[in-house]
């Protein structure tokens, strides 16, 4: 199945935005591909072209959408995948639905302790992890004997690297002239970096981080610098809506997501999309957007059946 591009842009009639003169639009990137929705397809496709059929090794937590999308791409396109999963305490336990889907799609799962996972960018640590991945792929005790063609291509956690940023430029281009502000939930920042660079003059991008920590500003600037030569100045972050951290929630967020689903008959993914929409309503009620603003929210995924 070919990706559905450009993804649909649909207006939403919601009086909570309308009473402030704000028009809400949903950029339905979740409809790009059933197995590779939204920013996952945009961030992966140039990386997979670069990998050129080699095994792909990537990283993520136990509920990582990125791991699941990479595994699905491997199944659909016929290349091996290895997912290095944060948390060695998960090894030997029954797989959660997300990791079970990765395994069903053929991904080899390697569980590592959290200290090692945090150090995965260290060259020595990464080399050792790639040795384990190569051994898992080749079923050989000594990965150094694997042929060069089997050496894996590494995609970072969340898929955010310069190729991912370039892949997300198209998201901005698709919204030229369609919105004044384009907002997206952020994990590792690659989607926002590319989106902002793809927008036309006068448009702005807004990122809503779903993790706490305040580290994304420099990460996004670095990604834009590496991918495009220099950072753009047409984006900002609002760090107030992480609700305690990744995959954390609050009663208020849950009630908002339930209500939005009921109002608009649209399933709301809870880790990213719910926080994005909740942030946009809060900002609208604060007067952050002038009357007449066309506000586009990028819907990057749909909820897992087991999470609803």
Q: Helices and strands, in N-to-C order?
A: EHEHEHEHEHHEHEHEHEHHE
**SS element count, helices:** 11
Strand runs, count: 10
Text of the CATH class of the largest domain = Alpha Beta
Provide the structure class: alpha/beta
CATH topology of the largest domain: Rossmann fold
- How many distinct folded domains? 2
Features:
308 residues, alpha/beta, Rossmann fold, 2 domains, six-stranded mixed β-sheet, four-stranded parallel β-sheet, 11 helices, 10 strands, 40% helix
Please, could you describe this protein's structure?
The chain has 11 helices and 10 strands. It has 308 residues and is α/β, with parallel strands linked by helices. Strands 1-2-10-7-8-9 form a 6-stranded mixed beta sheet, sandwiched between helices. A 4-stranded parallel beta sheet has the order 5-4-3-6, with helices on both faces. The chain folds into 2 domains: 9-34 and 160-307, Rossmann fold (3-Layer(aba) Sandwich); 55-151, 3-Layer(aba) Sandwich (Rossmann fold), CATH 3.40.50. The protein has helices at residues 15-18, 39-51, 65-77, 97-104, 114-118, 123-138, 162-174, 190-198, 216-228, 251-264, 273-286; strands at 9-12, 23-27, 56-60, 81-86, 108-112, 153-154, 181-186, 204-209, 235-237, 294-298. Helix 7 (162-174) crosses helix 8 (190-198), helix 7 crosses helix 9 and helix 10 (251-264) crosses helix 11.
């Amino acid at each position: 199945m070919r990706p559905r591009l450009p993804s649909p842009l649909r207006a939403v009639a919601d009086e909570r935005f309308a009473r402030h003169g704000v028009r809400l639009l949903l950029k339905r990137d979740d409809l790009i591909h059933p197995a590779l929705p939204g920013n996952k397809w945009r961030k992966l496709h140039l990386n997979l072209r670069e990998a050129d059929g080699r095994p792909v090794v990537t990283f993520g937590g136990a509920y990582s959408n990125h791991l699941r999308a990479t595994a699905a791409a491997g199944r659909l396109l016929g290349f091996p995948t290895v997912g290095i999963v944060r948390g060695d305490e998960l090894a030997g336990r029954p797989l959660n639905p997300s990791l079970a889907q990765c395994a069903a799609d053929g991904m080899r799962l390697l569980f590592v302790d959290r200290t090692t996972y945090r150090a995965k960018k260290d060259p020595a640590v990464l080399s050792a992890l790639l040795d384990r991945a190569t051994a898992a792929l080749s079923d050989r005790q000594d990965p150094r004997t694997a042929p060069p063609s089997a050496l894996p291509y590494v995609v970072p956690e969340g898929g955010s690297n310069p190729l991912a940023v370039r892949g997300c430029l198209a998201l901005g281009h698709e919204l030229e002239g369609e919105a004044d502000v384009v907002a997206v939930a952020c994990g590792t920042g690659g989607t926002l970096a590319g989106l902002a660079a793809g927008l036309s003059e006068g448009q702005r991008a807004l990122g809503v981080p779903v993790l706490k920590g305040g580290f994304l500003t420099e990460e996004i600037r670095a990604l834009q610098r590496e991918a495009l030569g220099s950072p753009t100045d047409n984006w900002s972050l609002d760090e107030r809506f992480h609700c305690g951290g990744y995959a954390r929630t609050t009663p208020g967020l849950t009630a908002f997501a339930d209500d939005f689903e009921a109002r608009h008959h649209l399933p709301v993914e809870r880790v990213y999309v719910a926080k994005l929409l909740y942030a946009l309503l809060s900002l609208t009620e604060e007067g952050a957007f002038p009357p007449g603003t066309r506000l586009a929210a990028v819907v990057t995924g749909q909820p897992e059946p087991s999470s609803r």
